[in-house]
Amino acid sequence: MPDPIEVRKIPIESVTDASGLARLIDDGVLAADRVLAVVGKTEGNGGVNDYTRLLADRAFREVLVAKGTRSEDEVRQVPLVWSGGTDGVLSPHATVFATVDPASAPRTDEPRLSVGVAMSEVVRPEDIGRPAMVETVAAGVRKAMEAAGIADPADVHYVQTKTPLLTLDTINDARRRGRTVVTDDTLKSMDISNSTTALGIAVALGEIGPPEAEQIHHDLALYSSVASCSSGVELDRAQIVVVGNVRGIGGRYRAGHGVMKDALDADGIWDAIRGTGLDLPDRPHPDDLDGRLVNVFVKCEADPSGTVRGRRNIMLDDSDVHWHRQIKACVGGVAASVTGDPAVFVSVAAVHQGPSGGGTVAAIADLG
User: Fold this and answer.
1) Against a cut of 0.90, is the pTM above it?
2) What average pLDDT does the segment 41-48 reach?
3) 261 is catalytic
4) pLDDT for 198-220, tens place per residue?
5) Catalytic pick from 162, 225, 347, 356?
6) Active-site residue, from 230, 231, 347, 356
7) Where are the beta strands (DSSP E) in the chain?
8) Cα(197)–Cα(216) distance, integer angstroms
9) Is 228 a catalytic residue?
């Protein structure tokens, strides 16, 4: 049985600020050597050249090295999943997952939060957007489930990943080796990396069978209901964080999940929160959460039809502001209106992550 989990959300006050993590360690809330993973939002542009992710990564790893006994190489293996871009009201923050001593955690036979992490095998640039990447990610998800002590895929409520995308350097590397890549557009490769990863998660959890090459990033009927995939330049393999519930593990926290059917589907967010076991009225209000919600994790996508609920929008036609930023700001506002807190995790490029035009939602609550 894995150890119970402590999970806390902390603000990020500047691009290189990791003081919130340091305070959690100094105050004895969690131990540096027990930190399993961090999932956070940074304030950059969210694009290929968003180096705020690298700056946050370095700041948080420095704290883990300074305040723990793990070496730099060991800390480098801890998944720190950074999603760039806090458009609109979204606020930079991080959610920290750590194990705790079972003797210090509440005991219960009810399902409680468990987290498993894994690093996949190397994802080569020529594999991005292709079945080989699906297989690599699926294998990594199975490893992370095993680490979390989760045998039944139905007990998985959130799978957060960070995978490589294509850059000019990696495209040229593939070509020097006589390989082709799925696209020359590095920004588009971000979306494709995310969607391919989502299919790997769906395969691992038995939500779909192995997809054909031509279905990847095209067959929108294929999706995972728990995948949240992000990509960047800072790694060459999939970082995988599996979050679910396990009976007998103990602790205070529980996860739930749902899907947003479209960009305005606040009920999808409330469904995920209800799935944590919180008792809510039929027409809930943020005050009903009473400080028990740790965070929600949302994926979003501009509907390829160019409409929401029958009304036309221009996100996909706008040459001034990329649709990534527009939909992220929109869904961030919807999510914050549910939680009453702008520090919510909202990430874009959600193909194969929930229904087309919508996205997956995960929630974690403190049941006390």
Assistant:
1) yes
2) 93
3) no
4) 999 999 999 999 999 999 999 99
5) 162
6) 230
7) 5-11, 35-42, 80-84, 93-99, 111-122, 156-164, 227-232, 237-247, 253-260, 293-300, 307-308, 311-312, 345-348, 359-366
8) 10
9) no
